[in-house]
Amino acid sequence: MDAAPPERRLPPATELGMASIALVAIGVIYLASYLPRHAPLGPAIGFLAAAAAVLLANAVLLSRQREFAWWRFFQVARWTLLAYVVIAGMLEYMFIYDHTRGSLLALLTLLLTTFTLNVPILLAFTVARFQDPDSRDRAAGAAAGGSARA
Predict the structure, then answer these.
(1) Among 85, 106, 111, 138, which residue's beta carbon has the most beta carbons within 10 A?
(2) pLDDT tens string 15-52
């Protein structure tokens, strides 16, 4: 009778990523609720600091994973990051076009950057967590004329 392989313990990357995105959304909604007047920036800076701290914690916890399909993670993350950098660039253009200036623009840019970095991590982790960490090695061996079975 075969025993089931032990389940890998993975960090709560999805939960941390969504918490960071929620903090970004709260900060942006807070700032937008004051428009066109000038918003007090203290609470939004607090939300930004919390979102960035959660993003950093997520990255650190993920980087400590040894048995993980990093090749697939980076494959997904690169393309997702490219798409979200383009989207973030369009949103940043919209901020400037609408004459957003000074500290409000800086804060919105940092919130947007935090969001833009979170999404590729979430998508890449969601894909890579279900990928066999050794599948790339077996596929490379099969392509080189070896057997795809371990």
Answers:
(1) 111
(2) 999 999 999 999 999 999 988 888 999 999 999 999 99
pLDDT recorded at residue 8: 72
pLDDT at 5: 52
Crossing angle (nearest 10°) for helices 42-63 and 13-32: 160
In a domain, 61, yes or no: yes
| pLDDT at res. 138 | 61
* CB contact at 8 A, 123 and 17: no
- Report which secondary-structure segment, H or E, holds 94: helix 70-97
Helix (H, G, I), strand (E, B) or coil at 84: helix
How many distinct structural domains can be found in the chain? 1
In-domain check, residue 7: no
Residue 101: which domain range? 13-134
Q: How distant, in Å, are the alpha carbons of 17, 47, 95, 146 from that of 132?
A: 22, 36, 42, 18
Distance CA 149, CA 135 (A): 10
